[in-house]
Amino acid sequence: MILTLLVLIPSIAILIVTGWGVVEHEKAMKNVTESYVLDLAQSVALRVDRPRFIHRAQMMSPRSIDSFVLDISMPGWVALVDEDGNLLAASSRARDVLPQIWQVGVPVGKATLLKGPMGDTYTIAAIPTSQGWYVIAAVAWSQLLGPMVRFSHLWPAAVGLLAIVGLCAVWAFWRWLIMPLLSLEAEVSSLKWGRDLPEPDDPLAVWELRRLRKVLYQLAETAKEREELTQRYVSDLVQVQEEERTKLAREIHDGPLQDVTALLQRILLLKQESWSEKAKKYIEIAEESATAAVRELRGLCDTLSPPWLDLGLLQALTELTERLARIYGIKIYLEANEIPDVNEDITLAFFRIVQEAINNAVKHGSAKSIWVRLACENGYLVLQIEDDGSGFDFEGDVEALRIKGHRGIANMAERMRMIKGQIDIKSSSSNSGTVITCKVLLPLSGEKSPRNAFDVGDVSKS
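The chain above was modelled as a monomer; its predicted structure follows.
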C-alpha cells in the first residue's frame, strides 16, 4: 500500500497542478481579451466623438456615415449601433462577422464572452458615445491569441490523457507488482519451512518477482529435502537405538542376569547346610543382594526392550505407568477412551514419550502426581501428560534445550516428527507444572476396538 501511495500521490499532485495551470491559463486569456476589447472600443469611441466625425454625422443620415473611422489595423471587429441596437456602420472586416455574433443586451462598459456560430470564442464590449450611439468591439480568441488558444484546447486533452496513462500505470503497478508481492508475503508467512512448498511461478507478476519466487521455491525445496533427510536420519538413528536396546537387553538377560540367578540358586542351596549364626547372617545378606540384582537387571531389561509393546498402546502404557508408579513411589493416573489399534511406530513413539516425560517430571520437577490422558479427537490420536512438578522455563526452542544438554524434550520432538505428529509443551518455573500434548493423525492398522475408560488410580508403592 505504501508503494502504491508513493506512486499515486505524485501522479495526483501533477494532475492537480496541471489542472490548476489550465484554469489559470484560461483566466489569463480571458483577462487579456477583455482588456484588449475594452481598450479597442474606448479608442474607437474617442475617434467617433471627435468634432470632425460629429460634423459629418450631422450632414448625412447615420446609415450613410463613412466607415473610415471604424477601420483599424489591429485584430478585431468594430461597429457603431444606435440606442435601439440597429447597426449604423461597421468596419470593412466586421460586416460579415459581427452581425452573426452581435446580441442586443450586451452590458455597456463591460466585456462579455460569446460563442460564434462555428464554435469560436469571442469577447465583445459596448462603449457609449456622446451622440447616444454605442461602439461595439469584438475579437476572436483564435485571432488575438493564436497558438495560446490551440494550446488551451489541447492542454485539457493532454491532461486527460496523462491522467489515464497515470491511472493505467498505477493499475499495472498494483496488478503486476503490489498484488504479487502481497500474495508472496501471505504465502511465505504461512509457509512451514521444510514441509511446504510455495507456488513455483506467478505468470502475472513482473519478471523480477517471478525470479524471486523461483529462487524461493528452490530454497524451500532444498529445505524440504534437508528436512526429509534429517527425518530419515533420525528415524534410522532411533531404529538403531531401539535395536541396540533390544540387543543390550537380550545380552543382559542371557549374560549377567543368568549368572546372578545361578548365583542366587547356589546361595539358596548353601543356606540348607549347617552354619553358624554369623555365617548364616552373611549368607542372608548375599541372598538379598543377589535378589535385588536380579530384580534390577530384569527391570533394566524391561526398560530397554519392553515386552508389552506387542500387546498394543493402551496395555503398554498401563504396564509402564504401574511400574514407574511403584519405582518412584508417586501417583500416576491413566485415562483413555475408545482407543483404536495403531501401528507399531505410534505405539513406540507414545510409549517412549510417556516414559521420558514421567522420568523428567520426577527427577527434575519433583512431581508427586502425574496424569496421562489418551483420547481420539477429530481423527487424531491425542496424548497428554500433565504433572504437578516445579516446571521449567520453555520458550519453544527445542534446539536451544538440546544445545544446553537437555535432550529429553528434543527426543520427544524427534519421535513426534518421525510419525509426522505435533507436540506442544507448556511449562514455566512458577511451580505450575508441565503439560505435554502430542497429536498425530490416526493411521489405523485394524478395526476400532472400543474400550471402556478406566483409571489406574493410585498405583503408588504401598
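The domain at 2-152 is CATH 3.30.450.20 (Beta-Lactamase).
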